[in-house]
Design goal:
Elements lengths: L9 H4 L20 H6 L8 E3 L6 E3 L2 H7 L26 E2 L2 E2 L8 H5 L1 H4 L5 E4 L2 E5 L5 E5 L5 E6 L7 H10 L9 E2 L10 E6 L4 H11 L5 E5 L10 E7 L2 E8 L2 H13 L10 E2 L3 E2 L4 E2 L2 E2 L6 E9 L4 H7 L9 E4 L8 H13 L4 E6 L7 E8 L2 H7 L6 E2 L5 E2 L1 E13 H6 L1 H13 L3 E6 L5 E8 L2 H15 L2 E2 L1 E2 L2 E2 L10 H13 L2 E5 L4 E5 L5 H13 L6 E4 L2 H19 L4 E4 L4 E4 L3 H11 L4 H9 L18 E3 L5 E3 H9 L1 H4 L6 E2 L2 H4 L4 E2 L1 H7 L2 H17 L5 E3 L8 E3 L33 H7 L1 H13 L2 E3 L6 E3 L6 E3 L6 E3 L5 E2 L2 H12 L7 H4 L2
Antiparallel strand pairs: 1-2, 3-4, 5-6, 6-7, 8-10, 8-11, 9-10, 12-21, 12-24, 13-18, 13-19, 14-18, 15-18, 16-17, 20-21, 22-23, 24-26, 25-26, 27-31, 28-29, 30-31, 32-34, 33-34, 35-36, 37-38, 39-40, 41-42, 43-44, 44-45
GO molecular function: ubiquitin binding; ubiquitin-protein transferase activity; zinc ion binding
Keywords: Metal-binding, Repeat, Transferase, Ubl conjugation pathway, Zinc, Zinc-finger
Pathway: Protein modification; protein ubiquitination
Length: 846
């Protein structure tokens, strides 16, 4: 008679039998057992079948493993989505049209990290409290202020309602709203279902609430606050503890047990390469039996905790490397949970997608840390913020283990690689500080080519903002000062001997010095301990170069002759690097002797005109010459129209474009004697400029736009505020209440001052005494206000055609008439005032 087969052990089937080989129940596996399949590693890559009680590891082929995993027949729900499946290996089927799809493998994490930053730039910026949209050439298309919008919170809605239904409901009440304006927050209770509707109409929320009340609707609407500041935080970091288990290691000798426990505690013994916690050796309770004391061969036990879940008896035994430390028995517990990382990530992604659409989801590669990490990038930052409600959420697949979900905020700058390398030690010092503040800093050298990108990321928005300030400060360099005065000489405007001396000092000290010709200063890049040495050497070198400089403002015909080849003749006559032609300011600077200055004047005034015309007829400008300074390009930047600029000249030209653009903002190429028709796009400028210079170009375009529209926008009058507001027409009634969201100071949007509780007329009547005194002083100093933007203008000499420095309007100084062009203004002066100069003094002072 065949022996009766032992009953299967329930605890062994669940991986937790502590009786081992002494168990009276069967520890055999059923080949076709569904439970047994679940004990096998959960993906096609996990081909090792683990027996936690015997410590044996039996190998099976990858193909057989996939066939035994029932999930391989289930289609992966993420494979066909826009973002694709980011789990590799994935236990579910990747099929397309009935055929197995080829897996692409893990993507580089760095690519995912920067997707929220390096996507297609829509050239929309938060400037002075406004959301500003720019055209492809940098002109301001639209300025949106928080006060231009209103947001209504609608309650009383049915659970599960869709945005399309809300649009239809609002249409029934007479409001035409697009579906993009409607948002239904996730994570609220069904009884609290609500919708947020944001419309570019300041009165929308109030009108909707009033209309719902009038028609006695079951719905209600209340105004919802709009945050004025815009952030970029669409990314969340998700993590959970890796599966762990406890392991009991038994010894017959207390000394050996203590020694092994200390080695685990010190990290000399590791399980699967990971440090684990270890208790002190504990002696088991012993009892008396008839005949004397009972001998226990495994009387001493040390308990290992935080042991990696996949670890087997064999793994633990192999971690105890010394033969004299080997234990008598090893007993592992069941793991904290059995699901694979891939299975958990599928569950996590499902939870995240309940809060909004994902642009990307990435499961990080297995690391030696104790947590599994994933990164999710949402399409909408509001959804990312909503997903943070999953923090500390318990998951059944983790057997009550909790998720950690944090919102990631990041900032980055782009600087030229040589300047980064010069300041690398300073950046490294800051990185140590940021690491202590739980900020991650990533450096991408020569990505894109010629530039280095530094990115700081963290959970604390204030810490990230402070890190950005530090990045900006370091990337701008340190102004070289001798005492309180910046080090500068006009000889540095050319690439002559003064510039060559500075370059020699750069090479000697291992630093970089950048010329800022607009501000007449030098910026230092390098270790701070070399700063004073650079100040001393450069100051001494420039003393020998000090010489008077003469500036000549060029008339239109003179400027045209210079850029069409005449400047080359000036160089031949005066010598190389003596004269500098600035095509932006249309000015010729002569840095030589008075005799050379007079020679330049003579050439400009027509002397030797034949030579100039001959030179202009055959301009010879080498391809490598910068069209701004007409010198060989230093740190060359080549544009799409194949002109080569010095980096400094190109940056200065871009930064000054706002003041030189006659109509809409544009950065025009100065090549071919300023006749090149190319207008640079913002995309091209972004590729060729550092991030700080590019952002300053956008800011200057915006500031110029605001200055030219004084009837539409004004800056907050509070010092150092910088926010703008939209103007309202003056009236006898009290103006609408407005409080600056930056400095929290109430401002009248009609007369642009603070007069709480008074009309504009009442305030002006009270303040008229001081106003009269100011007007009298302005008459004495020959200062007038621009009729269009109220910018104060002082006239000292010249003709009566004036250009406002604020809004760029053309003004008649006699009667303060406003014109759009200089031609119209001169025609008016000739017709109304008998000429554009020589006006009697009593008219000059109106």
């Amino acid at each position: 008679m065949a022996p009766t087969k032992a009953k299967p052990c329930f605890y062994f089937a669940h991986g937790g039998c502590r009786n081992g080989d002494h168990c009276r129940f069967s520890h055999e596996r059923a080949a076709n057992s569904e439970k047994d399949v679940n004990l096998i590693a959960s993906t096609s890559a996990d081909i090792e079948r683990l027996d936690i009680n015997t410590g044996d590891a039996t190998r099976a082929s990858s193909t057989a493993q996939v066939q035994s995993d029932s999930r391989a027949t289930i289609p992966c729900k993420f494979f066909g989505s826009a973002g694709g499946c980011r789990n590799d290996p994935c236990p579910y089927s990747h099929t397309s049209g009935g055929h197995q799809a080829e897996k692409t493998g893990n993507h580089d994490l760095a690519m995912i990290e920067d997707e929220d930053q390096e996507g297609q730039d829509d050239f929309t910026r938060d400037l002075s409290g406004a959301l500003v949209s720019f055209s492809e050439t940098g002109h301001v298309l639209k300025v949106s202020l928080p006060t231009d919008y209103s947001c209504a919170c609608i309650t009383g809605l049915k659970p599960g309602i869709q945005p399309e239904t809300i649009v239809e409901i609002l249409g029934g009440f007479g409001f035409n709203v697009s579906i993009d304006c409607v948002r239904i927050p996730k994570g609220t209770l069904p009884s609290e279902t609500k919708a947020l509707v944001k419309v570019e109409d300041p009165s929308f929320a109030k009108e909707l609430g009033d209309r719902l009340k009038q028609q006695q609707s079951d719905l209600s609407a209340t105004p919802h606050p709009i945050h004025s500041k815009r952030s970029n935080c669409r990314k969340v970091s998700v993590s959970w503890h890796k599966a762990t288990r406890s392991v009991w290691v038994n010894y017959g000798n207390g000394g050996i047990a203590d020694r092994v426990a200390q080695k685990f505690a010190d990290g000399r013994y590791k399980v699967l390469g990971q440090s684990v916690k270890c208790s002190k050796a504990k002696e088991a309770d012993t009892g008396w039996r008839r005949g004397g004391f009972s001998h226990n061969p495994v009387a001493w036990t040390i308990t290992l905790s935080d042991v990696p879940g996949p670890a087997t008896r064999t793994d633990v035994e192999e971690s105890i490397r010394a033969s004299y430390d080997k234990p008598r028995h090893i007993e592992p517990s069941r793991p904290s949970y059995r699901a694979s990382d891939a299975e958990v990530s599928v569950e996590v992604r499902c939870l995240l997608e309940k809060h909004g659409r994902l642009e990307n989801f990435y499961l990080e590669p297995i690391s030696m840390g104790k947590r599994v990490k994933a990164v999710a990038l949402f399409q909408d930052e509001a959804d990312a913020m909503s997903a943070c409600s999953l923090n500390n959420e318990q998951l059944s697949i983790l057997e009550k283990g909790k998720l950690t979900v944090t919102l990631k905020q990041s900032t980055k700058i782009k600087i030229q690689t040589p300047f980064y390398l010069a300041m690398e030690t300073r950046f490294d010092e800051e990185r140590k500080i940021w690491r202590e503040r739980h900020l991650a800093c990533h450096v991408y050298v020569d990505s894109p080519p010629g530039f280095t990108v530094l990115k700081v990321e963290g959970d604390n928005p204030n810490e990230v903002a402070n890190a950005r300030k530090t990045l900006d400060q370091i990337s701008q360099g340190v102004v070289l000062k001798n005492g309180e005065d910046p080090i500068w000489t006009s000889a540095l405007r050319t690439n002559g001997s003064a510039h060559k001396r500075v370059k020699a000092i750069e090479k000697e000290l291992g630093i970089l010095v950048r010329r800022d010709k607009a501000k007449c200063q030098l910026c230092f890049y390098g270790p701070l301990e070399k700063y004073q040495q650079a100040v001393t050497q450069i100051s001494e070198a420039l003393k020998e170069e000090s010489s008077p400089s003469y500036k000549i403002d060029l008339k239109p015909d003179q400027f045209s002759r210079m850029v069409q080849g005449g400047f080359k003749y000036v160089e031949q006559a005066l010598g190389k690097n003596v004269a500098v032609l600035d095509v932006v300011s249309k000015r010729l600077t002569v840095g030589g002797t008075k005799k050379q200055y007079e020679m330049a004047l003579a050439i400009l005034n027509g002397a030797d005109g034949i030579e100039i015309r001959a030179s202009a007829a055959n301009p010879s400008s080498p391809e490598g010459d910068c069209p701004i300074c007409f010198c060989e390009a230093e740190t060359p930047v080549q544009t799409s129209c194949m002109h080569t600029y010095c980096l400094e000249c190109f940056e200065d030209s871009c930064k000054s474009a706002a003041s030189t653009s006659k109509a809409d903002f544009q950065v025009k190429c100065q090549g071919d004697g300023c006749t090149c028709p190319t207008i640079f796009t913002l995309q091209e400028l972004k590729e060729r400029l550092s991030s700080s210079v590019f952002e300053s170009v956008l800011k200057s375009s915006f500031e110029e736009y605001v200055q030219r529209r004084p009837d539409a926008f004004h800056y907050c009058p509070e010092p150092d505020c910088g926010y703008i507001y939209r103007c309202t027409p003056a009236s006898n009634s009290k103006p609408p209440a407005y409080m600056c969201p930056n400095c929290l100071v109430p401002v009248c949007t009609s007369c642009h001052t603070r007069h709480d509780g008074q009309t504009c007329a009442e305030y002006k009547d009270i303040a008229s005494g001081g106003y009269k005194a100011l007007e009298e002083l302005k008459r004495k100093l020959n200062i007038k206000d621009c009729p269009k933007c109220t910018t104060r203008i002082e006239k000292t000499d010249g003709c009566n055609h004036m250009t406002c420095g604020g809004c760029k309007s053309h003004l008649c100084w006699v009667c303060m008439a406003v014109f759009g062009t200089s031609t119209e203004c001169y025609a008016h002066l000739n017709q109304a005032h008998g000429g554009h100069g020589g006006v009697p003094q009593h008219l000059m002072l109106w």
